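Justification of resources, computational component.

The compute hours requested in this renewal are based largely on the per-chain cost of generating structure records like the one below. Each record pairs the submitted sequence with a full structure-token output. That output is archived, and it is also reused by downstream analysis tasks.
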Amino acid sequence: MTEPRLRVTEIFHSLQGETSRIGLPTVFVRLTGCPLRCGYCDTGYAFQGGRWMQIPEILAAVAGYAPRYVTVTGGEPLAQRDCPRLLAALCDAGYEVSLETSGALDIAGVDARVSRIVDIKTPGSGESGRNLWANLERLTPHDELKCVITDEADYRWAVEVLRERRLAERCPVVFSPAFGRLSARDLAEWILRDRLPVRMQVQLHKVLWGEEKGR
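The structure output for this chain reads:
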């Protein structure tokens, strides 16, 4: 049987800039391609290009950094059929693995050992119609839900979804301001005002390195 291949944009070592693992040294495997076009996307360079790599090649590249944490991201990693096999292989290798996914594609086939970081799309993203709402029923306390907020209308929309679907009872929820579009202070004050059970975060890697690619 032919060894499965995935198209990889980059593999790099950095600090985790988001989620509850923020600040932890992490190896990122960025897969190529994405069916969405969010208005605030900062990884458009991963929409095409990259190079084909077999899973053992990817594992060898990751092992070179001797990490504890590995994040598979994109683009939209689940757009590649063999992404679940890569995730399982990384878990088998002993890493603590997370997946950053838009939530537009089914997460049911992802190995249970993987922490699934599902990015629910707000109207301000331009892609809220792509949300696969069934994914929310599959989330566990091991997973996380992320919501990037572009303005106050987005915030109100996210709060309604949070409360109607009781998402904070299902898994940790993260609200983040869209970089360059919403003041982090404004979002923080709204969260405090409304006493939301969410984690407020800014993207650490952008605080440290700006919009530099590969961080």
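Residues 48 and 117 are 23 Å apart (CA to CA). The domain at 5-209 is CATH 3.20.20.70 (TIM Barrel).
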